[in-house]
Structures are given as structure tokens and as C-alpha cells.
């Protein structure tokens, strides 16, 4: 049924006509398209929204919107919604806005009307001070509408940037996302992808094949595993949409609605003064022995729950959200189980972005340090480790949220400085009684400082061993930094959780003055 040209005779007739029009939008008339969507291993847009929002809370806007384009047969294909569902609902009781592509309608492609719907809901989210989530499953720009489709993307990008650091922006890739469309997820705070369902690339396999001769599949070029583990373009990776959308909901529960609010606080049965005696056996005193820092984090935080970001990319550093005494914190930690926990190009980028995100949304930072330095080598130097390492340094220096550093074992060289040391603005700094803070490890230092003496000695190895012990005794004992005011205290590892909770409680009302400037100029 279509809308009649005659005005309804009375209100009841008008309501009946309204229901008839709405039936054109509902899944009943899209049964074949829905079956095709399921055959691809994907949920329909309405099924996704049901999983995302609290039951019965989603309110759609501009459901009856239709495009006005003509040519190439578009004038005969004017479905309602124009291939995107927009509106708002509640997640754990809090208002969240959404736009979700409907691949069943015009392939979810973006035209003028489609883009204007997205612009409107983004503007509403900004005005309401509420997060916005995009569920991407579209064929890109609607070619038949030409440059107006490209202009529509421009309007989205401009709003992504305007909302950056103001409201949380979450991108969930649940189908193809190609060409210019990929830049919107890249501008948002978090990107979720699903194996076998999500693809994201600037140019597709056909273009790659014609230009370079390389034969590559959609998954190999821009699949979920590629972006979660190789490019770093996606923070979260899942095997199915249900699990993915459940974690989108969980992430929302950890974030404030906007930059003027604090993250939600929840009651916890995990005692604030719970001791962490297992850490004494979990972390080996030998600085050269590996261990899993995740186990340390899980021992410290509420109920052992860490929501890790970029879990499969740059694994030599861990970034994630957790709670301490019910309050959300961002955790940055070296991972000795991967590359000995060194800092390199990718780990510096990963941590810098995470620190900036936490700072933007008033999430305090806890930095757990066990770092031997920056990764040496030509590839790192030529790849720009200087400027990439500077990104992490810049992010910490610029952060005004409460910042607490905890040094577990070693902290050497520039990596010690960069990992939120007191000298770059950490509010409170603690260390375990096996900590080693120095320019470099004792062996390397002795080889430099006593090089000539060792070379001239009758027994070079014995002399080297003596000088190593001397260097350790004089400059690397656990209390050297504390004696000079670079540590606030050396603590029993069993008190790590309670120490962090007490420190963050003291800093909760922290206020920081920011220099008057248009914006900083961070390294790229």
C-alpha cells in the first residue's frame, strides 16, 4: 500500500493509513532480503538493535524518510528509511544514540537523504551529551547520486571530529566498509569487528588486483583479524555478532556519557583492602624472567575483570578498562610475556591513543611498569621510533586526569620516563621492593662505565662481575629513587590494590590548569 493522495476523512482513517505505511518499513516486506542477510551469516539491522539496546527502549527517527534522487532508475526505488535506521535507546538505563546501515535496502549505500539522517542523529547526540554508536554494514557511497554522496561523508567526518573527546563514539563494523566510509571509524574512539563478517579497506581486492597484480581476498585485505592484529585499526575482535554487541554494551557501561561527566560508579563486594599476597609468587624477582602481566592486573582490580583494548595488537603493552573499588580506571602496563615488555613503535602508538582517550573522558590512569627500554634496531629507528615514542610521552604529559605509577621490577632509560614517571607529571609514584630504576641494566652500564678497566684487567670476567655488583649496589638498589624523591613510597606487593585505591581516592577531586592555547601540536 502507498499513501493516498486524498487526505484521510477522519483521524481513525489517518491512523489506519499510518499503520499501513509503517508495514512497508517492517521486516515483513523484506523477508527475502532478510533471508539473504542471514545466508551471509549476518543479523538484520532490527535484530542488531534489539541486542544492543535495553528491551523496548529504542525510538526511531525519520523512519519514513525517502530519497529524492532521479536517474539510473532511482526514481522507481524509493524505500522508506533510505537504508539507514537512526534513533536512540537505553543501554543499562543510559541514553545512547545510534545509526545503523540496513544492507537489505539499497545495499546500505549512502546517498543524500541517508547522510542527512546520520548528520541529524549525530547532532542530537552531541546536543544531548550522549554516546553515539554506528553499526556499519553498507556498500559505501551511492554511485548513482554522485558527488552529493561524497559530500554526505564529509558531513559525517566533520561531526566525528567535532564530537571527538566530547561524547564517546563507537564504531561496530558488521559488514563491508570501504573507500571513504572507512575514515569515520578511524576518527571514532573504539572500533569493533567480527570474523567472517567485517571487512574494512580503502580499495577492494579487484582494484588491488588491477593495479598491483596481487590476488587477495576480502578477508586477507581488510578482515577482522587483519585490523585487530596487524594494522591496529580495530580495538576489539569477535567470533559472532551477539558476543560483539554484548561487549559494546559493556564498554558503554564503563564510559561517561560525555566529557563533563565522570564514568559510572558501581557497588562492589570486592574489599578495597583485599591483600594481594599471590603477587609475591606470581612475579619473579629475576628481572630477566617473563610472566603474564594480565594475571597481575586481574589480581589487583575488582573481581579480576579487565576489559582489554587492542588485545591482539602490540601485545608487548596492555591497555584496558577496569574498576578499583567500583570506580573505572584505565590501565597501561608493560607485558614481560611479549618482547620482554619493551616499548616499540606499535606499543607506543597503542598506549598513546588509550591515554588520550582516558584523559578525554575523565578516566584516571594507573600505569604498571616493568620495562627494559625501547626496542633497538634499524627497523625501529627507520620506522620512526623517535616520533612514535614521543606520542606516548606527549599523551602522558598532556593528561590532566589522576595518574598513579606503580613500578613492579625494572624501569630503564627513556622508557622509564615515558611510562608516566614523576618527572612527566604522575601524581603519585610507588614501587615494589625489587624495583630497579636506572639509565640501563647493570650489565650494560658496567660495560660502558668500566670498559677500559675491564679490558685491561688480568681477569676481565671477574672484574666485570665485580663492577656489575658495584653498580647495582650504588645506583640500582630499590630505595635509590625514593631517597631522591622520585618515588612516593616503596610498598609491600600485597598492598598494591589498597595502595592504588587510596591514591585514586585522594586524587578524585584533582583539578588541573591548562595553558591557554588553541591546541597542542603532538608528534605524528
Structure explained in plain terms:
This protein is α/β, with parallel strands linked by helices and 524 residues long. It folds into 2 domains: 27-254, Alpha-Beta Complex (2-enoyl-CoA Hydratase, Chain A, domain 1), CATH 3.90.226.10; 279-441 and 476-507, 2-enoyl-CoA Hydratase, Chain A, domain 1, CATH 3.90.226. It contains 21 helices and 17 strands. Strands 10, 11, 12, 13, 14, 15, 16 and 17 form an 8-stranded mixed sheet that branches. The protein has a 7-stranded mixed sheet with strand order 1-2-3-4-5-7-9, with helices on both faces. The protein has a two-stranded parallel sheet with strand order 6-8. Helix 4 (112-128) runs parallel beside helix 5 and helix 13 (345-360) runs parallel beside helix 15 (385-398). The model has no long low-confidence stretch (mean pLDDT 92).
Amino acid at each position: 500500500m502507498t499513501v493516498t493522495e486524498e487526505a484521510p476523512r477522519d483521524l481513525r482513517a489517518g491512523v489506519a493509513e499510518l499503520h499501513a505505511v509503517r508495514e512497508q518499513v517492517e521486516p515483513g516486506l523484506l523477508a527475502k532480503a532478510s533471508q539473504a542477510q542471514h545466508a551471509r551469516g549476518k543479523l538484520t539491522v532490527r535484530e542488531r538493535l534489539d541486542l544492543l539496546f535495553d528491551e523496548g527502549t529504542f525510538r526511531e527517527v525519520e523512519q519514513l524518510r525517502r530519497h529524492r534522487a532521479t536517474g539510473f532508475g532511482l526514481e522507481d526505488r524509493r524505500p522508506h528509511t533510505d537504508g539507514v535506521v537512526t534513533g536512540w535507546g537505553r543501554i543499562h538505563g543510559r541514553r545512547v544514540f545510534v545509526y545503523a546501515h540496513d544492507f537489505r535496502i539499497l545495499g546500505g549505500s549512502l546517498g543524500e537523504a541517508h547522510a542527512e539522517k546520520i548528520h541529524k542523529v549525530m547532532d542530537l547526540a552531541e546536543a544531548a551529551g550522549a554516546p553515539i554508536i554506528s553499526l556499519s554494514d553498507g556498500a559505501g557511497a551511492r554511485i548513482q547520486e554522485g558527488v552529493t554522496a561524497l559530500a554526505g561523508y564529509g558531513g559525517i567526518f566533520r561531526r566525528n571530529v567535532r564530537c571527538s573527546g566530547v561524547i564517546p563514539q563507537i564504531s561496530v563494523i558488521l559488514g563491508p566498509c570501504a573507500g571513504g566510509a572507512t575514515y569515520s571509524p578511524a576518527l571514532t574512539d573504539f572500533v569493533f569487528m567480527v570474523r567472517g563478517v567485517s571487512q574494512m579497506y580503502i580499495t577492494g581486492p579487484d582494484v588491488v588486483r588491477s593495479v598491483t597484480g596481487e590476488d587477495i581476498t576480502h578477508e586477507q585485505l581488510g578482515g577482522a583479524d587483519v585490523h585487530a592484529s596487524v594494522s591496529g585499526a580495530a580495538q576489539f575482535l569477535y567470533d559472532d555478532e551477539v558476543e560483539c554487541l554484548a561487549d559494546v554494551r559493556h564498554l558503554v557501561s564503563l564510559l561517561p556519557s560525555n566529557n563533563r561527566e565522570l564514568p559510572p560508579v558501581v557497588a562492589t563486594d570486592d574489599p578495597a583492602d583485599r591483600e594481594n599476597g599471590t603477587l609475591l609468587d606470581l612475579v619473579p624477582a629475576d628481572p630477566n624472567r617473563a610472566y603474564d602481566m594480565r594475571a597481575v592486573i586481574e589480581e589487583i582490580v575488582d573481581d579480576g575483570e579487565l576489559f582489554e583494548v587492542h588485545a591482539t595488537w602490540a601485545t608487548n603493552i596492555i591497555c584496558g578498562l577496569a574498576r578499583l573499588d567500583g570506580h573505572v580506571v584505565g590501565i597501561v602496563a608493560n607485558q614481560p610475556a611479549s618482547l620482554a615488555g619493551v616499548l616499540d613503535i606499535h606499543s607506543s602508538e597503542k598506549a598513546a591513543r588509550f591515554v588520550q582517550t582516558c584523559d578525554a573522558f575523565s578516566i584516571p590512569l594507573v600505569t604498571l611498569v616493568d620495562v627494559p627500554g625501547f626496542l633497538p634496531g634499524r627497523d625501529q629507528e627507520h620506522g620512526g621510533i623517535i616520533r612514535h615514542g614521543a606520542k606516548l610521552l606527549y599523551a602522558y604529559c598532556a593528561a590532566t586526569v589522576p595518574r598513579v605509577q606503580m613500578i613492579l621490577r625494572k624501569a630503564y632509560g627513556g622508557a622509564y620516563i615515558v611510562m608516566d614517571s614523576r618527572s612527566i607529571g604522575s601524581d603519585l609514584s610507588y614501587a615494589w621492593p625489587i624495583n630497579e630504576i636506572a639509565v640501563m641494566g647493570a650489565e650494560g652500564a658496567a660495560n660502558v662505565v668500566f670498559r677500559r678497566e675491564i679490558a685491561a684487567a688480568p681477569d676481565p670476567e671477574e672484574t666485570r662481575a665485580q663492577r656489575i655488583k658495584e653498580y647495582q649496589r650504588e645506583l640500582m638498589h630499590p630505595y635509590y629513587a625514593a631517597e631522591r624523591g622520585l618515588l612516593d613510597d616503596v610498598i609491600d606487593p600485597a598492598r598494591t590494590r589498597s595502595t592504588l585505591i587510596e591514591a585514586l581516592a585522594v586524587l578524585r577531586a584533582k583539578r588541573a590548569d591548562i595553558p591557554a592555547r588553541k591546541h597542542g601540536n603532538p608528534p605524528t
